[in-house]
Each structure stands twice: as structure tokens, then as C-alpha cells.
Amino acid sequence: MKSNELRMPSYGGQALIEGVLMRGKHALAAAFRKPDGKIEVHTEKLQGIYDQKIFQIPFLRGLVILWDSLVLGMKYLTLSANIQAESEQEKVEGASLYLAVIVAVLFAVILFFILPLLLSNLVNLIVPLNSLLSNLIEGILRLIIMIGYLSAISHMNEIGRVFAYHGAEHKTINAYEAKSDLNVSSVMSYSIQHPRCGTSFLLTLIIFSIIIFAFIGEIPFLLKILSRIILIPVLTMVSYEFIHWLGEHQGNALVKLISKPNLALQSFTTKEPSPDMIEVAIQAINSLIELEN
Asked: Domain spans of the chain?
């Protein structure tokens, strides 16, 4: 599957709580299944920084998209949660929302960057290792922790439904890029995997972390911790460009082979959706197409 921006825009998306967010170049649309069964749609034009040339600058655009994912993603994830809330007291907004974002970012940094370093350092205390082998073990531990975490949360009922909406998002984008009819029966036949998925980005980031951290060599432990945090933006930029390149060359046999581990990892974060979930995803992408046109 190769995206051709000369013939059609390249759309991306995100699963929400009982909903799907679809994002284009100039706008986004989010569709939600309300508790009463009806579908509610929210749309937004992307302006300000989204119109700047930084989005065309390789590597720098990766940082902007990371920020974009955190801000817009959390905004609509919170909106989707509030739509499902049964009372005003259950809604998340204001200071509690910002606190939730900060806690989520800190949790991710500690779990996927600091914890693997601490564990590899413990191994190094028991069995002295050179810096290259120590970094390799750290990277393997990071991968194991990520897979374990994704596997664990996928068995939670609420997260499982979000992952099913993730599958609905992928199927709908796959159908759109194949120029297929955007109806439930047609979209259901497409794959729940997609090469530009954020899950693929996570695996790619871990692989590049092993490579980049290997060049640091042996330094004091506290500097190691600091380096893992400081280099997250660098890893983000490199990983985004690699995923972007893979997505643009899916017709190449070698690229398809390289993409297989990324697609396999998506089995943890995507599930087969029900027809009513597909209906929500179709509403989201149709609303986006209408808005951008």
C-alpha cells in the first residue's frame, strides 16, 4: 500500500473512547457513538502552526507532530470520555486535564526509558558488561516492557474497545487509500493493520534508541539517565522520518519485509471492530473529506 499525495491526501487517525479521530492536512474530524446510540461529530480547521513551513521540514516536523499528537490527541480523547460521562462530576477538564497529561507523559518516560536503564544497570552490577552490550540489554528490556504493557492493557475491557475502534480507523483509511466504497460491508473486508500506525512508531523508536544510545559510550549513571530524556526528541525525529519513508514506499518488496515487525506489533493495539464501530469511523472520514474539500 503506497500513499500518493498527488492523487489523494494522506490521512491519519486515532482511536478514542467510543469514537474515531481522523486528521488531514488542513482539518480534522472526530465522530463519537453517544450513550443513546447516535453519532456525534466534531470538526476543526487546523490553523496557526499547522500552516507554517515547519511541517515540510524533515526531522523538525516529527517534533511538531509529536506535540500535535499530545495536544490534539488528549483534547479529543478527553472530549470522548466526557461524552460518555453519566454526570458532570465525572467529566475531566481544566486543571485536572493538564495534570492528567503531565502524569501520562512522566509515566511513559519512566516506564519506557528510565526503568529499562535501571534494570540494565542492575544486570551490569551482577555481571559487568561493556557499554555496547549494556545498551543492547537496555534496548531489549525496553522492548519487553513495551510489549508486556501493551499486552496487559489490551485485556482490559474498556481499552479493548478503544483498540477495536483503532482497528476501525485502520480499516477505513485502508479502504479510502484503496479508493474503495466507504460503506460498512466494504470497509470491513480491509486489514486492521496500517504502516503509518503509531504502534509502528513505538517499535521503530526503540530500535533507534539502541543504535543512538550505543554511540554515547560509558558515562556516569546520572548522565545516562539525563541522556535518555534529552535524546527523546532526537529519537522522535529520526523514527518519524523512517516511518514516513516506509509508508511512502510500501510497494517495495524490501520495505514490506522491513515493515513486518511493525505490523506484527499492531496485533496488540488493534482488534477487529464491529459494524457499528466501522460506521463511526466512516462518519469521521467522510466529515473530514467534506471539510477539506
From this structure: 12-292
